[in-house]
Design brief:
By secondary structure, this protein is an alpha/beta fold. It is built from nine helices and 15 strands. Helices cover about 25% and strands about 25% of the residues. The protein has a seven-stranded mixed sheet, sandwiched between helices. Strands 1-2-6-5 form a four-stranded antiparallel sheet, with no helix packed on it. A four-stranded antiparallel sheet has the order 4-3-7-8, with no helix packed on it. The chain binds S-adenosylmethionine.
Length: about 350
Amino acid sequence: MIRHMTFRKLNTLHKLKFNRVDANLRWVHFESAPWIGNTGARVSVFVVFADGKRKIDELRLKTSSGMVIPAEVDDQTSLPQELSQFNELPESFRNFYKVSFNLAGPEVVVGVGLIEKHEVPLFTLIPKIEHPDFLFDILCQAASSFPDTEFSTFVETGTLYGHTAIHAACMFEHVYSIELNEQLNSNAKAISSCFPQIQFIQGDSGVEIAKLINRISSPTIFFLDAHWSGDKSVDWQSSEFSGYPTDTSHLGNTETVTPSSQEQVPLDRELEIVLSRFPHEAIIIIDDWQSIGERNNAFAGEDWSHLSKQSLLEQFDASPRKIFHYPYDDKHYILGIRSMAESPDVATSNVNESAEAA
Ligand SMILES: C[S@@+](CC[C@H](N)C(=O)[O-])C[C@H]1O[C@@H](n2cnc3c(N)ncnc32)[C@H](O)[C@@H]1O
């Protein structure tokens, strides 16, 4: 069973949020991904004051206990596109600063202004870990069908910033997350020292998952979320989803030709491997179920058309390991499978083949 003790720990994380507290502060803009920043990730915030009455002579950052945090403060910078509405203010009202610093941990950071020689607290930043609430709900629901099973391992495909992996690290003894993009993988690795139970693996999840499952000896939750989620080649103006602040990867070779559906989404290969070779009980959560079979759903060029909901459902129904499968909501599909030992119809040759392949 997923342990209730760890749920309490999770609730503490819920409270970590970036906040703005001062009435003078008009905007804080995060350039990078602060939620991954428990070990020194670089964070840039734009702070904009629409206040012509007070001139801020100096802006500093301090911890809530009063220690000064080394920060670069740039008041010459130009505003990013998202804040261009502030350019319409009269010049004397436009006070804005770009403040960049390394997060030292999930501690409160206070922005302090020196105004007429007095230090005035201007804003507060509280580091936030973004995590998917649905995961917690799904696990409680699906795990109740396995009353005697302890799921101590969580495998994610598609790491991105590591949100879900961090979230899962509060609930599981072992967490593995596979990411194709080298930069995203190495960013995520930077947080491993805070969460030693997470292992970040770089590579194509349709290949890496086969090697990984040979190392896992316990019932596992698989969260299948690897897919191209766009990059700078995408026309975001004509897309519903506005994109992540960083490029994500696909298996195609060029940046100019839109990748094929197979190159964008490894889900069919991942499922095939888990269903035919993972020997233990498992709960499989398929993310973005609504995109299956679709093109241009979230953004121009997105393509999941090599997959079909109908054929996946037939594959699940035909599996002798199936315990249940159902849509959790529009976005998530859940599948529970028994161990191979409890599924006599599963050819044992599958297990032998996978051991040889490893
Ligand atoms: C939607 S994001 C993952 C979000 C993440 N699971 C979370 O919950 O925050 C999808 C990620 O999959 C990665 N990706 C795309 N194709 C992949 C592949 N074949 N193998 C592993 N990762 C892949 C992309 O680079 C992107 O970072």
